């Protein structure tokens, strides 16, 4: 069995660090790659060796398969972990890695290929009894026919890019009048984002919840699942808050979804860590959406409730070791919540707000985990995903994990950029989230910027200006104007001090 001595992480930011930490614990040497924009990044400092692979744009650095493999050969690297995003779901890259005699820490190129196409994935699992959303089984070539199918399925429908990912290339069509326009948009978005304009139709599940199952498979045909993650709080079809377990699944549904996920993995001869995504309706019927053939952004919540280090398992599997964890050994213990801290302005449509982290102080303490890639004073490059950190809390119960999250959010001090933290706090406080009765429409249904409590980086000057304006407007109050001001001010103070 091959043993991995030296590992190159073909990624950046928090996930590069997260992978290297486990490698270090396992006594494996680490190699970082970086672009010119990431010279001072934490993953570069953390690694035993690091190599600049090109200029800032990812197409000239993090996506340069040839350069990365060359670095491996030069530095006697045995294996490559691709993280998520970048080359992680690129079957050609996995193939090149294999041909270069290196270990790709992930599934086979064949599995990546099948699951990389949502249509091929559906075809592959067709022999198994996996529930699927009604829709077209192949790419749409004839619009007239597609319209007939759409009215049979019943509006609203969703047009989706077969090669899609990251919530891109997806269009909801409410009725036939909108069909052509949305179709044009979906095709052109799919073409420009994925270089493949193939789209298909799915019924739009109303009040949908996104629930996914983590799987692990070894190279000997053993596949297990590590329960679910609930990821229904999304903006632009992309997750911002995740938790495990889901507040709504019964043990029976959990078991059925787990078995379906294992079947999906089996259908493509899967090994490594993977995620099978389902959409769940309000009657708790679940339907297979797609499989992500990589480590997922939100994997820490699963690690917290199962005690399994997923990266460690990925490395063992890549070395050819059989899984030592049995399905019956696994148990859900406690509850974990993750919020994604993006440099985005929730008050302005979640538009990226990159800049320099003038203040950056992480929360700490019992049940708090921060996976990030930044330090105070660092700039968030415009070239990549604007995620600053993942903040994860863990408690015995859901309530406890949420309370810890609110405490941790209040203690997180970030200034210089707007972040999704105030939005995440709003979610944690919201009755719908608290009660567990929410779906992917959460943001559009409940959120408006005026719901945000001021962020910790309100400056004294801004505070003074707001107070002055408030006092001016309330020069003839009946009685309790100033009491309100005091409360408001102390709340801001509390936030500022964290
Ligand atoms: P997750 O389910 O892990 O949250 P996301 O869909 O949010 O997955 O994607 C994780 C990361 O991978 C993000 O940085 C996203 O931008 C990137 N990503 C996902 N799919 C693609 C794709 N097809 N092409 C390029 N980047 C992608
Ligand atoms: P991606 O590859 O972009 O992650 P997915 O198929 O996983 O694409 O869908 C992303 C998100 O879009 C889901 O989490 C869900 O919120 C929404 N979605 C996808 N398919 C449907 C559907 N048929 N009905 C309702 N919502 C859907
Ligand atoms: Mg998805």
Automatic annotation (TrEMBL):
<dbReference type="InterPro" id="IPR050856">
    <property type="entry name" value="Biotin_carboxylase_complex"/>
</dbReference>
<dbReference type="GO" id="GO:0016874">
    <property type="term" value="F:ligase activity"/>
</dbReference>
<dbReference type="InterPro" id="IPR004549">
    <property type="entry name" value="Acetyl_CoA_COase_biotin_COase"/>
</dbReference>
<dbReference type="InterPro" id="IPR005481">
    <property type="entry name" value="BC-like_N"/>
</dbReference>
<protein>
    <submittedName>
        <fullName>Propionyl-CoA carboxylase alpha chain</fullName>
    </submittedName>
</protein>
<dbReference type="GO" id="GO:0005524">
    <property type="term" value="F:ATP binding"/>
</dbReference>
<keyword id="KW-0547">Nucleotide-binding</keyword>
<dbReference type="InterPro" id="IPR016185">
    <property type="entry name" value="PreATP-grasp_dom_sf"/>
</dbReference>
<dbReference type="InterPro" id="IPR005479">
    <property type="entry name" value="CPAse_ATP-bd"/>
</dbReference>
<dbReference type="GO" id="GO:0046872">
    <property type="term" value="F:metal ion binding"/>
</dbReference>
<keyword id="KW-0479">Metal-binding</keyword>
<feature type="region of interest" description="Disordered">
    <location>
        <begin position="478"/>
        <end position="498"/>
    </location>
</feature>
<keyword id="KW-0067">ATP-binding</keyword>
<dbReference type="InterPro" id="IPR005482">
    <property type="entry name" value="Biotin_COase_C"/>
</dbReference>
<feature type="domain" description="ATP-grasp">
    <location>
        <begin position="122"/>
        <end position="319"/>
    </location>
</feature>
<dbReference type="InterPro" id="IPR011054">
    <property type="entry name" value="Rudment_hybrid_motif"/>
</dbReference>
<feature type="domain" description="Biotin carboxylation">
    <location>
        <begin position="3"/>
        <end position="448"/>
    </location>
</feature>
<keyword id="KW-0436">Ligase</keyword>
<dbReference type="GO" id="GO:2001295">
    <property type="term" value="P:malonyl-CoA biosynthetic process"/>
</dbReference>
<dbReference type="InterPro" id="IPR011761">
    <property type="entry name" value="ATP-grasp"/>
</dbReference>
<dbReference type="Pfam" id="PF00289">
    <property type="entry name" value="Biotin_carb_N"/>
</dbReference>
<keyword id="KW-0092">Biotin</keyword>
<dbReference type="InterPro" id="IPR011764">
    <property type="entry name" value="Biotin_carboxylation_dom"/>
</dbReference>
<dbReference type="Pfam" id="PF02785">
    <property type="entry name" value="Biotin_carb_C"/>
</dbReference>
<dbReference type="Pfam" id="PF02786">
    <property type="entry name" value="CPSase_L_D2"/>
</dbReference>
<keyword id="KW-0460">Magnesium</keyword>
<feature type="compositionally biased region" description="Polar residues">
    <location>
        <begin position="478"/>
        <end position="489"/>
    </location>
</feature>
């Amino acid at each position: 069995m091959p043993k991995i001595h030296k590992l190159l992480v073909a990624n950046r930011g928090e996930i590069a660090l997260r992978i290297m930490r486990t490698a270090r614990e396992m006594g494996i040497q680490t190699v970082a790659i970086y672009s010119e924009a990431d010279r001072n990044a934490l993953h570069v400092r953390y690694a035993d060796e690091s190599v600049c692979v090109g200029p800032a744009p990812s197409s000239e650095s993090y996506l340069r398969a040839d350069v990365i493999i060359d670095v491996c050969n030069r530095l006697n690297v045995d294996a490559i972990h691709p993280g998520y995003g970048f080359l992680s779901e690129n079957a050609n890259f996995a193939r090149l890695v294999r041909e270069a005699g290196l270990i790709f820490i992930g599934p086979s190129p064949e599995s990546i290929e099948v699951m990389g196409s949502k249509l091929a994935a559906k075809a592959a699992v067709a022999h198994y009894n996996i529930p699927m959303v009604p829709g077209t089984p192949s790419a749409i070539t004839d619009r007239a026919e597609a319209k007939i199918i759409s009215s049979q399925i019943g509006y609203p429908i969703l047009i989706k890019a077969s090669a899609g990912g990251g919530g891109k290339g997806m269009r909801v069509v409410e009725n036939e009048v909108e069909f052509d326009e949305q179709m044009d948009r979906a095709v052109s978005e799919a073409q420009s984002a994925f270089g493949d304009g193939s789209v298909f139709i799915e019924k739009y599940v109303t009040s949908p919840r996104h629930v996914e199952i983590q799987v692990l498979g070894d190279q000997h045909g053993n596949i297990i699942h590590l329960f679910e993650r609930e990821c229904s709080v999304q903006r632009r079809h992309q997750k911002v808050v995740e938790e495990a377990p889901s507040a709504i699944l019964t043990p029976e549904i959990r078991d059925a979804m787990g078995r379906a996920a294992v079947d999906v993995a089996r259908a493509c001869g899967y090994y490594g860590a993977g995620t099978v995504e389902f959409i769940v309706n309000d009657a708790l019927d679940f339907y297979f959406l797609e499989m992500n053939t990589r480590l997922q952004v939100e994997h820490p919540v699963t690690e917290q409730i199962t005690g399994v280090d997923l990266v460690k398992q990925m490395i063992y599997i890549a070395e050819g070791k059989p899984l030592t964890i049995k399905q019956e050994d696994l148990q859900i213990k406690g509850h974990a919540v993750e919020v994604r801290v993006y440099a985005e302005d929730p008050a302005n449509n979640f538009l990226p707000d990159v800049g320099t982290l003038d203040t950056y102080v992480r929360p700490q303490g019992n049940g708090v985990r921060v996976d990030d890639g930044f330090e105070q004073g660092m700039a968030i490059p415009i070239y990549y995903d604007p995620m600053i950190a993942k903040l994860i809390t863990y408690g015995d119960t859901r309530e406890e994990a949420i309370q810890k999250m609110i405490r941790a959010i209040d203690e997180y001090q970030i200034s210089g950029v707007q972040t999704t933290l105030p939005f995440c706090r709003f979610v944690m406080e919201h009755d719908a989230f608290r009660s567990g009765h929410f779906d992917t429409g959460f943001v559009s249904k409940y959120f408006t910027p005026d719901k945000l409590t001021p962020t910790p980086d309100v400056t004294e000057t801004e505070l003074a200006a707001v107070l002055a304006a408030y006092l001016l407007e309330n020069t003839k109050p009946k009685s309790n104007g100033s009491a309100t001001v005091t409360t408001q001010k102390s709340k801001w103070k509390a936030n500022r001090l964290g």
